[in-house]
Fold this sequence. Notes:
The protein is α+β, with helices and mostly antiparallel strands. Helices cover 17% and strands 41% of the residues.
Amino acid sequence: MFKLAVSLIALALLFCAQPASAFVPDDEELAALLQKSYGPLASWEADVTFPGHYGVSVNVNFARGKWRQEWRAGDTAVGVGQAGSVIAACTADGFALSPLFVWMVPDPLTAWRSWGVDCAIRSYGFCGDAPCIMLGAEPGDDRTPAVHLDNEDMAPLLVRYAVDGKRISVAYSDYKTLGGYRVPQKVLLTVDGETLEMSVKWKSVMKADGEELYARDSVPPVPCAEPPAPFAFLRDNFRYPSIR
């Protein structure tokens, strides 16, 4: 009996001594988990408000990388585009991008690698109080491009990258389930230490596929006034990840 107990203890110690990376899903498993949780999610619509900027809201439609935004603050300003490119906008000096564009993208593993995230570096850790899978950087490294995923449902908790000399991170939280998908209701953008908080009211999933929404000619030809803050902050500071 004594020898059996010693053997069991030895096996337990050996098990505990295995590196955390040994239990993190490999590429194939991770891709399958992401596909199961978010693979069918082709489009969505949401309204975004900013707790620090009363009276400003943005309606965002997204479908397979294409997007449409309508900023509302008395008047309306419209822009359409794809990924980090603005195809058409009624404002004279460019258009702001939304941090929701990097939340869950088509073929996420390929996209994250192209954004500089080394997905071969992966471990379990804690994002706040929640256990999560960390891709791209070891725990404690808050500078290297990385993606953090909820350990249970693969919901993105953090996307971090650098572009045009700016260090950008987007944290997603307060998740709820809509149409079978986990979607965040709070977003915190940080650009070189400056933060912007956003609240998200989700309107639909899988119902924003109409090509007319994203067409260049859907933008009114009449020039419009630039929306109030935080439009300029997003336009001048938030960047879509560059492709590497």
